[in-house]
């Protein structure tokens, strides 16, 4: 048979192999030869190995989407139809936790294939990382995990995370070294970058969504790193390592749980990688100073990984705009303005709750001026004279954003801490930072 074969033959071959993999795991589980975790991870590994072979089976996008749809329908039947669950569900669902990973895997594979069809480096390597490294992390963490950290889904172990990083390094480094023309040092540094970043992504994922995040993040990272000059790869490795160690060292000064702290490192690396050092200035100031300026009520680390995402989202929107219209300093200033609104919003709600006798408008003005001075102005000073008018517009926009936040947020004097508060704050930050658009480039 020639490769790639007819797409219908490829679809049939993959469907049969997947059915065999699930059937073998279900039989072993039913005979009590393996436990539920091993059965589930054996299916996970076999699925990953099959999907990683797609560049040699398909050339078009539609067959992979057909397979993804078939897999989602079949997996839904196994989960929710009692007969199927009783016969083959033991290989997927006989674990003591909620997981949507079996649905995320085919969707992630289809999305990754649509982005990089036929490219085994950018498609197959992230899929192999998900298949092998995730299984290694689960098994190492289950058997040897002693040192734990908190996540949105409960607890994970550092032993499991380090096992994930080691497996990822080998999965990426060996193929790049043996089957591509890039140099030894380049393949080494790309593998280190992949191991560090994807370890963090896996650590902050919950309920099986690592099956979605890891392939997409891995594809984007390897696409960014592959072909970079050696000095830039070294810089990338240093930045990723520095961010991870830095946020972890500072975590006791924050209100973030462990996964949320690691999310800050990932978001910081994305900002630096896509925009450069200046895009790190405002979020770093916010991360380092917010609890010093506005101490939390009880010192608890209660905020989950979703909170840093809502805070970073407006800045990431402006970062995306910058990638389309590179060279305009308004966009990094708009991101800084959004982070300033977040800092002022944190201060506004904390101070109104702590000192209810003070008029809310006085608190708005004080927190507004403080956030402009310590978040927005430093970014404008680095940019230079061309930032004057956008900075003035953003200062006004920040005040409007704060007033909007005060108007739309329910129970504001009771210091709301739920996720809805942070989404409203995200909306206010994005709207306020749009003031930069009134200034022409």
Structure summary:
By secondary structure, the chain is an all-alpha fold. 75% of the residues lie in helices and 2% in strands.
Domain module count:
3
Task: Report how far the terminal alpha carbons are from each other.
Answer: 59 Å
β-strand amount: under 5%
Q: Tally of extended strands? A: 2
How would you describe the shape? Answer: globular
Order of helices and strands: HHHHHHHEEHHHHHHHHHHH
Main beta sheet: 2 strands, antiparallel
- What is the radius of gyration? 24 Å
Helix content: over 70%
Structural class: mainly alpha
Widest β-sheet, arrangement of strands: 1-2
Which ranges are low-confidence, i.e. pLDDT below 50, for 5 or more consecutive residues? Answer: none
List the total number of helices.
18
* Mean pLDDT across residues: 85
Can you give a write-up of this model?
The structure is a single chain. The chain is an all-alpha fold. The chain has three domains: 1-116, no CATH class; 119-250, no CATH class; 277-438, no CATH class. 75% of the residues lie in helices and 2% in strands. It is built from 18 helices and two strands. Strands 1-2 form a two-stranded antiparallel sheet. Helix 3 (62-80) crosses helix 4 and helix 8 (158-179) packs antiparallel against helix 9. The chain starts with 6 loop residues before the first helix and ends in an 8-residue tail after the last helix. 45% of the residues are buried. The mean pLDDT is 85.
């Amino acid at each position: 048979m020639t490769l790639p074969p007819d797409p219908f033959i490829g679809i049939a071959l993959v469907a049969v192999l997947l059915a065999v993999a699930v059937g073998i795991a279900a039989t072993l589980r039913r005979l009590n030869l393996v436990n539920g975790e091993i059965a589930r991870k054996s299916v996970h590994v076999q699925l990953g190995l099959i999907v990683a072979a797609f560049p040699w089976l398909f050339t078009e996008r539609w067959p992979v989407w057909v397979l993804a749809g078939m897999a989602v329908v079949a997996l839904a039947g196994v989960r929710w139809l009692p007969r199927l669950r009783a016969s083959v569900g033991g290989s997927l669902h006989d674990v003591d936790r909620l997981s949507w990973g079996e649905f995320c895997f085919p969707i992630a594979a289809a999305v990754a294939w649509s982005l990089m069809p036929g490219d085994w480096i950018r498609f197959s390597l992230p899929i192999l990382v998900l298949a092998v490294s995730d299984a290694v992390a689960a098994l190492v963490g289950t058997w040897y995990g002693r040192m734990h950290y908190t996540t949105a889904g409960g607890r994970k172990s550092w032993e499991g995370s380090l096992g994930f990083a080691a497996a990822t390094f080998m999965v990426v480094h060996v193929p790049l070294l043996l089957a591509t023309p890039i140099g030894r040092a380049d393949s080494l540094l790309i593998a280190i970058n992949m191991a560090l970043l994807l370890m963090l992504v896996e650590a902050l994922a919950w309920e099986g969504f690592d099956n979605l995040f890891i392939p997409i993040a891995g594809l984007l990272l390897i696409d960014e790193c592959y072909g970079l000059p050696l000095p830039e790869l070294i810089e990338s490795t240093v930045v990723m390592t520095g961010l991870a160690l830095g946020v972890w060292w500072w975590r006791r000064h924050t209100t973030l749980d462990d996964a949320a702290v690691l999310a800050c490192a990932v978001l910081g690396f994305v900002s630096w990688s896509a925009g450069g050092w200046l895009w790190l200035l405002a979020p770093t100031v916010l991360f380092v100073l917010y609890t010093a300026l506005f101490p939390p009520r009880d010192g608890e680390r209660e905020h989950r990984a979703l909170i840093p995402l809502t805070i970073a989202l407006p800045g990431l929107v402006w970062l995306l705009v910058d990638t389309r219209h590179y060279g305009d300093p308004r966009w990094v200033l708009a991101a800084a303005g959004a982070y300033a609104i977040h800092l002022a919003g944190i201060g506004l709600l904390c101070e109104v709750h702590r000192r209810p006798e003070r008029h809310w408008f006085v608190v708005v003005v004080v927190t507004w001026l403080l956030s402009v001075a310590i978040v927005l102005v430093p970014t404008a000073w680095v940019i230079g004279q061309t930032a004057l008018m956008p900075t003035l517009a953003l200062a006004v926009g920040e005040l409007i954003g704060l007033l909007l936040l005060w108007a739309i947020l329910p129970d504001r004097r009771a210091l709301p801490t739920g996720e809805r508060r942070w989404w409203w704050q995200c909306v206010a930050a994005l709207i306020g930072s749009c003031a930069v658009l009134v200034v022409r480039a």
